[in-house]
Write a structure and sequence with these properties.
3 domains; D-amino Acid Aminotransferase, Chain A, domain 1; Rossmann fold; alpha+beta; single chain
Length: 301
């Protein structure tokens, strides 16, 4: 596919999600090359970013800080090289769970009740308001890194201290544990919803990447009309943040069937455990077709 020119697949990097990025990027690179794309590996932790000047397009497969937070997107904008995924602003906002929730709530999209934490927080009062269980998260990490489930009263301060090792912004969030779902976005389309059923206590790093007993239901267990509604809402949530190209929106469901939007992923994983390829298969797209489609959406601005 010579019309794409010379393509750099950015993966690796220096974030806490480096290992996942290496796995995702190597699979994307292989799939592009099998489709005849002149694609090359590029690890910004090992090469100068100036070396990107010889490429015509960039497939961003970096996860986490410096790759998914608008940093590399700004570099590529300055260099004038079209790239996959969201732009600078949407990437930066999407990486920040707190500001994502503020934007969604401002337009009427439901989000779980939450509180920002610091060392001076009234932890007992926050526990009482949010209830148990609750989840404590670094606001700007992905792949469930640093996420802690608090199920016992009096443990919030300890959980905050652990999460604060990963980020200066820490968020406590009401636990909604009846159902977890994800919606992959490709272009202007929300793909079929996947329900995630972990065998662990919650969908943590181990359940996402290491275990073979996490179940993924697609079709999910929602009535057809409700799924259509939630796919449309997920696309709205994606667009409200200014996202483009491709990504993933996660939401939770309580026992009464109410949905609460959780977070957006602007550079989703593409490993053999990843959710976007699963949703694409349900929509009739092979892995190879998916990566070529994502690459075709590369743009600037």
């Amino acid at each position: 596919m010579s019309d794409f020119g010379k393509v750099a697949v950015l993966f690796g990097g220096d974030s806490a999600e480096r290992e996942v990025s290496l796995h995702s990027g190597s699979r994307v690179l292989d799939a592009l090359q099998r489709q005849g794309v002149d694609a090359h590996a590029f690890d910004p932790a090992e090469r100068k970013l100036g070396d990107l000047a010889v490429f015509d397009r960039v497939f961003v497969m970096l996860h986490g800080r410096h790759g998914e937070d608008g940093t590399i997107q700004g570099v590529l904008e300055l260099m004038g090289i079209p790239y996959t995924g969201s732009g600078v602003m949407a990437s930066a906002v999407g990486m920040d769970k707190w500001r994502t929730k503020l934007l969604w709530r401002s337009v009427g999209l439901p989000v779980p009740d939450f509180a920002m934490l610091d060392q001076d927080s009234d932890f007992a009062a926050i526990e009482a308001r949010l209830g148990l269980p609750l989840f404590v998260k670094p606001a700007c990490e992905g792949s469930s890194i640093g996420v802690i489930k608090v199920s016992e009263s009096g443990r919030l301060r300890e959980a905050y201290a652990e999460a604060a090792r990963h980020d200066s912004l820490v968020i406590a969030e009401r636990g909604i544990v009846e159902g977890e779902y994800t919606v992959a976005i490709l272009g202007d389309e929300a793909l079929p919803i996947i329900r995630i059923v972990p065998s662990t206590d919650f969908y943590d790093y181990e359940a996402k990447y290491l275990r073979e007993d996490t179940r993924y239901l697609c079709p999910c267990d929602l009535p057809e009309a409700r799924e259509r509604e939630l796919r449309a809402q997920s696309l709205e949530a994606f667009r409200v943040l200014g996202c483009r190209g491709w990504g993933r929106v996660d939401f939770l469901m309580d026992g009464q069937g109410n949905a609460y939007f959780l977070e957006v992923n602007t550079s989703p994983g593409m490993t053999d455990h990843s959710l976007v390829p699963m949703a694409a298969r349900a929509a009739g797209l092979s892995y190879e077709q998916l990566v070529v489609r994502v690459l075709s959406l590369a743009t600037l601005g």
